[in-house]
Amino acid sequence: MKPIRFKALAAIITICFLGLLSVSGSLWFAATTESDAAAINLAGSLRMQAWRLVDRVNSDKTRHNGLNQLIRTYDSRLASPTLRHLADRTDIIGRRYQALVSEWHSEMRPLLSDKAGWREFADKVPGFVDRLNDLVTSLQLHTERKLHWLVILAIFSLCSILAIGAVTIGYIQLNLIKPVEQLSYAAKKVRRGKFDHLRLNYKNADEMGQLTETFSAMADSLSLLYSDLEAQVSGKTRSLEQSNMALQLLYESSQTLSMNPYDEDQLTLLLERWKRLLGLKRAYVCLTGNAGSMKLQRIFPQSETFNDVCNTGQCEGCIREPSSDLQFSLSQNDEGYGYLQISLQDGQSLTEESRQWLRTFGDIVSASMYRSGYQTQERQLLLLEERAVIARELHDSLAQALSYQKIQVTRLRKVLKRMGTEESVDSIVEEIREGLNSAYRQLRELLNTFRLNTSFGSLEGALQETLKEYGKRDESVKFNLDYRLRFCHLDAHHQIHVLQIVREGLVNVIQHSGAKKATVVCEQVSPGKVQVLIDDDGSGFSDEINTPGHYGTTIMQERAESLGGQLYFESSGFGGARVRLEFSSV
Fold first, then answer.
1. Is 242 a domain residue?
2. Would you place residue 544 in the very low, low, confident or very high pLDDT band (cuts 50, 70, 90)?
């Protein structure tokens, strides 16, 4: 298809051509009409001149000179340039003019040369004049025909100009103004950022069609760009909202866990929130209260369920390599506290930012546990230092006094033996000696208790060392430790008293039960609830178990009460005795 400029140029040229044609026709008609009018006037004067010749020859007073003057005038008018150009024409006008000229020169003029021919001349003049009238009539008809054609040309030019103008206006309206209006409307919508329904209907293969097609393509590109930008903005907004929520959750995690990292309810709530925030399939932690221990406890949201596989103690079997993207090690200062484990939905992937959030959350958990352990150790050191001071004071005072009394009793026995005293006196002295020895043993045990320390890194380590110690005291008894505490926080106060109660119980096993085997069990029966069992296969408890001061049970009861717990004396599943301690670790 031709470009619009070619069509517009063609329309303008056509209109100009028609206007030029009409003007040219008018000019031509004006020029030719002027000569035709002169010819008609001159032909009309020839008629009058012919009648003057008739009048002259019929006059009695006709003079020869006057007649010749009229003849010469007639000759000059008939041969004038105004009429002579008619001889060049081939139409009826030319033929009639040539016939008139021939008739004048061959018939009419010779009759005037002799007076005898004047009568005949006068008789022929009417016919000659009629033929002049025919010439004039032909000239008039010819002029009228030219005028008729001029009118037709003018009407044709006018109609053509109007038609071309109407077509041009319609073409401009359809192919220029309307597309421009559509472009203007579309441009306003684009300026307002609205790209819907911007496909322009103009499809011609011209400049405007190219422009509208290019604009439509541009609008589509802008629409895709804006959609992509909106999607990016929406994604960035969601990402920022998620980042804000994640940072808020990290802050709350830091605040909550810094106060009590062993609060399982809070950990469960935090894991549930991480699961919802990141759209995870599963999120849980496997934690231990003893740094470096692989006895882990799984803590997970209430919305999740697991098979009971954590009571086997085989944590290594279900822990994958720490390098896994879905597993984050919980460690602080090279001390491991477990793992943060997540599972993704089908087809889900985590961004590096999300992974960093989870790593930070894991660092918060491990850091809070590290701080808690460090604070517990500090309190243990302070408590142990205080107890060590008390032990030194007891050793320097009461222990020395008892040692002195033992020496004095020994001297008294020797003196009484030389004096030969009565047997009753000897028995009293022996009872005093045994009482002093018993008091001294109890004092030494008390001093050992005060000098206890948990420098082995955990309660489990301290209990193991205690069992080794008592195993060396009495090699006939086999001592075992079943330590099941995983994620349970015991502060220095709890650990010291538990260790003291266990030691008191082991003393009773060695001194009174006659057992061959003894087992110490530490377990968490419910969140925040700890149970310690001391079982043996000895003779069991006598009926006097509740007698005040019997087998050191009073001291054990007092220590249990200081823990805010309960102490029970029961029969063991091994057939012997069981000491059961229950207390809250919270």
1. no
2. low
